[in-house]
Amino acid sequence: MPPVQITINNKKTIIVNGGKSLLTTLADEKIFLPTACGGRGICGLCRLKILTGGGNLTDAEQRKLKDDEKKSNVRLACQITVSGDLNIEIPERLLTLGEYKCKCTEILDVASEVRQLRLELIEPRTIDYIPGQYVQVFVPACEKSPQPVSRAYSISSDPADKNFIELIARRTPGGISSTYFFEYLKVGDELKFTGPYGQFKISQTQSPMVFIAGGSGMAPIKCMLHYLKNTGSKRQAVYYFGANKVSELVWPELMRQFEKDLPNFRFVPVIADPQEKWAGQRGLVTEAVKRDLKNAEQYEAYLCGSPGMVDAAIKTLKELEISDDKIFYDKLTPNSQ
Ligand SMILES: Cc1cc2nc3c(=O)[nH]c(=O)nc-3n(C[C@H](O)[C@H](O)[C@H](O)COP(=O)(O)OP(=O)(O)OC[C@H]3O[C@@H](n4cnc5c(N)ncnc54)[C@H](O)[C@@H]3O)c2cc1C
Ligand code: FES
Description:
The protein is α/β, with parallel strands linked by helices. It has three domains: about 5-95, Roll (Ubiquitin-like (UB roll)); about 100-195, Translation factors (Elongation Factor Tu (Ef-tu), domain 3, Beta Barrel); about 210-330, Nucleotide-binding domain of ferredoxin-NADP reductase (FNR) module (Rossmann fold, 3-Layer(aba) Sandwich), CATH 3.40.50. About 20% of the residues lie in helices and about 30% in strands. It has helices spanning about 20-30, 60-65, 65-70, 175-185, 220-230, 250-260, 285-290, 305-320, and strands at about 5-10, 10-15, 45-50, 75, 85-90, 100-110, 115-125, 135-140, 150-155, 165-170, 190-195, 210-215, 235-245, 265-270, 280, 300-305, 325-330. The strands form three sheets. It has a six-stranded antiparallel β-sheet with strand order 9-8-11-6-7-10. The chain has a six-stranded parallel β-sheet with strand order 15-14-13-12-16-17, sandwiched between helices. Strands 2-1-5-3-4 form a five-stranded mixed β-sheet. Strand 1 and strand 2 (about 10-15) form a beta hairpin. The chain binds flavin-adenine dinucleotide (FAD) and FE2/S2 (inorganic) cluster. FE2/S2 (inorganic) cluster binds near residues 23, 35 and 37.
């Protein structure tokens, strides 16, 4: 296919060979758009504007894009095959994202079927990110997946540590990347990731905060708690963490330590179906919030977990009269949605 020209934000022009998706073509040029589904038209994160070129919307775009987005030329980069000149618009902040080479230096089981990975940076040597952001990890080809894939993982480490990041991976039965992390990845292996991505972050107000998370939704909240501690925050904060069983509680001791380190912080683990002895709260995490949270309308809410958990939490918070503009969340969307 002959070379084609891509003009970005009417500022920069690149000449590329056609034939691949726009998402992959841009990544080859070190422009990394967010993606959580590895380019399958499912996550919707690779949105950008196409001012000229690009052809017709695919079925995946018809499903994923809202009507007003379709009218204003929003497209999914993974759904466009580069075959002619394009004029595109990308948020400036995405143009500065980097690709990081790293080495896995520690693997720890931190709860039942949840594993923490420490990735020490090789090149570049340091990273800056906003607590709440995530990276896109490239999982190399292995027996489970003959093609390399990439998946989103939230950063869980202390943002003061610039030479490494930590992630937590929850095992998804039959999942490509989680199987790789649980069964193939070894200390000493090298990996690549891009980022940091995402808009999930703590606001700079002094409003009280309620955090609600489940499963690996713990990752960005832990990172935020480190940030609150590092900045000497005195904000009132309560953190409801939901799990099915006691063994699924991630870092309960560390959360107790945050209760000591942060003057106005309280951790409330909620177990849906405790088979074991359990003196804490029982049931759904949303029920516990509904029971407990007094004067809820004053709070800002930070939610992270499966789409189902986040949607249920939003519904509960609205019933408690917390307004939309005070509810911030990241859905850990699996690749089928
Ligand atoms: C912004 C963002 C941040 C994320 N952060 C984290 C994180 O910190 N830790 C973490 O473990 N994951 C996180 N995820 C989810 C992660 O990107 C992967 O989707 C997840 O690890 C499964 O990937 P996989 O390759 O193992 O499964 P896949 O091979 O992609 O999926 C295999 C099958 O399992 C299904 N499936 C996948 N995930 C789930 C699920 N959660 N529940 C039910 N079915 C599922 C799929 O639909 C598919 O049928 C995040 C996702 C997003 C969008
Ligand atoms: S990467 Fe395009 S929709 Fe997920």
